[in-house]
């Protein structure tokens, strides 16, 4: 099968700021890729560029013909003055019908919420509704932009389990940005560290072989920070192709 | 069309027309938290009046152009994260003040500034009525045509993009509708109270509605009821019509808010 998404030498400038610097990237069918990086490293901009919400200043983004993207944003701020049920929300912008809505909600693990108002949902329910919305497109790739921000650890772990389950059923690729590496890492085929440019990328097993990574599982939320230390320590080659030195200090 | 000879009939039709357009549009103003942008646009109308008089062009056209520029400028600012309350305030009141100063230079035109500030619904001519209803139908047509796309981009720009909708374009549709509603409503309630006609009926409808569509329809009906009732009350008590219409709308809002409070209806 052909590559779903490809970025070649993508530069993005916002004002005078160079947010992305010659980023190269490929996403193959069925693959799970996680993008990590410190705040302000251009992760969200990169995702938005890939899905076409943002134009690269130079370089090219290629999407496979007829590629269907299921996009799951960070928690939306729906104004409490907007009365809308989950079912109606899923029928926007175009009507998909009650059956598809029911199926998508069931697949996302929230089959009983169709008639509930959006503004009354909990964080975890809300994100699952967004997942259901993404599933309506029968996506080739699910794109998650820090989709579990604001959820507690149990909540986000269970959300990612749901994603994993959906992927096994649908066989779609998953591309996600996350801070919670200790949660998503195990399921990822590939991890990319972005800090304006691609710092390093590699299979998680390679990354996991680092002693810092072993510390990750034992130390809970410190894990992600530990991994950054790993990613920015270029002493070990097996973690991926480290491009050059990093000026920034993380953690 | 002899019944149009009656100024009260014309006033009623003008009020209903503006309310029907302002209600649904006002829902978007409320949902998108654009209340202050609506206010700024309406205030800029006075500058439009001054420019139109100075250039001897149609006042409606002058209002339309200035409001369109103002609404584009302020919504562009908010899109870039530059919108400070203060900056919006400077633009809203700056254009209002420059408009007032400008009109004072043109007093030779024996223009009645009050009618633009507070409305003059009893002086609506058959031609005005045509302009008002023309504008109203365009606004309702725009909202009808773009409804789903507008609603989607109101909830999330990212989701809109993902669904192939350009939220910038939808924002522009709202901007045009906003400028239009100011241009047609200025005769009815005046520049100072147009934003009230957008926000109050929509806010009143909120507690009664379970879907965006019913909220829009209810807002239009509540606005129309305010216009008719306000017109009657102004006639009975000899009060200024525009402010009376807005006062009645505010009473409706208070009653609906109280009812909700007393009955403990949840805000969902």
UniProtKB/TrEMBL annotation, chain A:
Single GO biological process annotation from the record: zinc ion transport
Swiss-Prot/TrEMBL keywords: ATP-binding, Cell membrane, Hydrolase, Ion transport, Membrane, Nucleotide-binding, Translocase, Transport, Zinc, Zinc transport
Domain ABC transporter: 5-220
Enzyme class, spelled out: hydrolase
Pfam families cross-referenced by the UniProt entry: ABC_tran
Domain of life: Bacteria
GO molecular function: ATP binding; ATP hydrolysis activity
Enzyme Commission number: 3.6.3.-
SMART domains membership: AAA
InterPro entries recorded: AAA+_ATPase, ABC_transporter-like_ATP-bd, ABC_transporter-like_CS, Metal_Ion_Import_ABC, P-loop_NTPase
Protein name: Zinc import ATP-binding protein ZnuC
Species in which this protein is naturally found: Nereida ignava
TrEMBL record, chain B:
Localization per record: Cell membrane
Keyword check for Transport: yes
Gene3D superfamilies, per database record: ABC transporter involved in vitamin B12 uptake, BtuC
Transmembrane segments: 12-31, 43-74, 86-106, 118-145, 176-203, 215-237, 243-263
InterPro entries (UniProt xref): ABC_BtuC-like, ABC_TroCD
Presence of the UniProt keyword Cell membrane in the record: yes
Pfam family, one: ABC-3
CDD domains: TM_ABC_iron-siderophores_like
GO biological process: response to zinc ion; transmembrane transport; zinc ion transport
Topological type in the membrane: Multi-pass membrane protein
Keyword terms of this UniProt record: Cell membrane, Ion transport, Membrane, Transmembrane, Transmembrane helix, Transport, Zinc, Zinc transport
Gene Ontology CC annotations of this record: ATP-binding cassette (ABC) transporter complex
Superkingdom: Bacteria
Function (record text): Involved in the high-affinity zinc uptake transport system.
Similarity annotation: Belongs to the ABC-3 integral membrane protein family.
Record-given protein name: High-affinity zinc uptake system membrane protein ZnuB
Lineage of the species this protein comes from: Bacteria, Pseudomonadati, Pseudomonadota, Alphaproteobacteria, Rhodobacterales
């Amino acid at each position: 099968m052909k590559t779903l998404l490809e970025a070649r030498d993508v530069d993005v400038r916002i004002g005078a700021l160079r947010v992305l610097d010659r980023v190269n990237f490929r996403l193959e069918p069925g693959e799970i890729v996680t993008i990590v990086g410190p705040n302000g490293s251009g992760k969200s901009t990169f995702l938005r560029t890939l899905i076409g919400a943002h134009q690269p200043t130079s370089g090219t983004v290629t999407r496979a013909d007829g590629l269907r993207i299921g996009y799951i944003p960070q928690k939306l701020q729906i104004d409490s003055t907007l009365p809308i049920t989950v079912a109606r929300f899923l029928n926007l912008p175009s009507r998909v019908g009650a059956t598809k809505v029911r199926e998508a909600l069931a697949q996302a693990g929230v089959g009983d919420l169709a008639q509930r108002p959006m503004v009354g949902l909990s964080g975890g329910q809300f994100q699952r509704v967004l997942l259901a919305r993404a599933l309506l497109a029968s996506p080739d790739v699910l794109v998650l932009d820090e989709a579990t921000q604001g959820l507690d650890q149990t909540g986000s772990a269970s959300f990612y389990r749901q994603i994993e389950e959906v992927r096994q059923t649908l066989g779609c690729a998953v591309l996600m940005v996350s801070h919670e590496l200790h949660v998503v890492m195990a399921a990822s085929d590939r991890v990319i560290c972005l800090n304006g440019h691609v710092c390093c990328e590699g299979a998680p097993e390679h990354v996991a072989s680092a002693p810092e990574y072993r510390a990750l599982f034992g130390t809970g939320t410190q894990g992600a920070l530990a991994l950054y230390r790993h990613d920015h320590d270029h002493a070990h080659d097996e973690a991926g192709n480290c491009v050059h030195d990093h000026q920034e200090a993380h953690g | 069309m002899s019944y149009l000879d009656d100024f009260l009939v014309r006033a009623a039709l003008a009020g209903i027309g503006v309310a029907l357009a302002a209600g649904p549009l006002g829902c978007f103003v409320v949902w998108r938290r654009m209340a202050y942008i609506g206010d700024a646009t309406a205030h800029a109308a006075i500058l439009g009046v001054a420019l139109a008089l100075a250039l001897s062009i149609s006042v409606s056209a002058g209002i339309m152009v200035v409001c369109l520029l103002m609404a584009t400028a302020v919504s562009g600012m908010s899109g870039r994260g530059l919108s400070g309350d203060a900056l919006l305030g400077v633009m809203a009141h700056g254009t209002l003040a420059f408009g007032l100063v400008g009109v004072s230079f043109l007093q030779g035109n024996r223009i009645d500034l009050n009618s633009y500030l507070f409305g003059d619904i009893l002086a609506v001519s058959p031609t005005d009525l045509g302009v008002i209803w023309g504008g109203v139908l365009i606004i309702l047509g725009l909202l009808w045509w773009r409804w789903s796309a507008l609603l989607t981009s109101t909830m999330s720009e990212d989701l809109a993009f993902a669904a192939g909708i350009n939220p910038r374009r939808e924002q522009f549709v709202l901007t045009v509708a906003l400028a239009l509603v100011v241009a047609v409503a200025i005769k009815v309630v005046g520049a100072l109270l147009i934003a009230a006609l957008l926000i109050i009926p929509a806010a009143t409808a909120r507690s009664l509605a379970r879907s965006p569509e019913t909220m829009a329809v209810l807002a239009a009906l509540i606005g129309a009821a305010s216009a008719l009732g306000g017109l009657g009350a102004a006639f009975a008590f000899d009060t200024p019509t525009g402010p009376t219409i807005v006062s009645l709308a505010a009473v409706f809002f208070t009653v609906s808010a109280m009812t909700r409070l007393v009955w403990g209806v949840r805000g969902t």
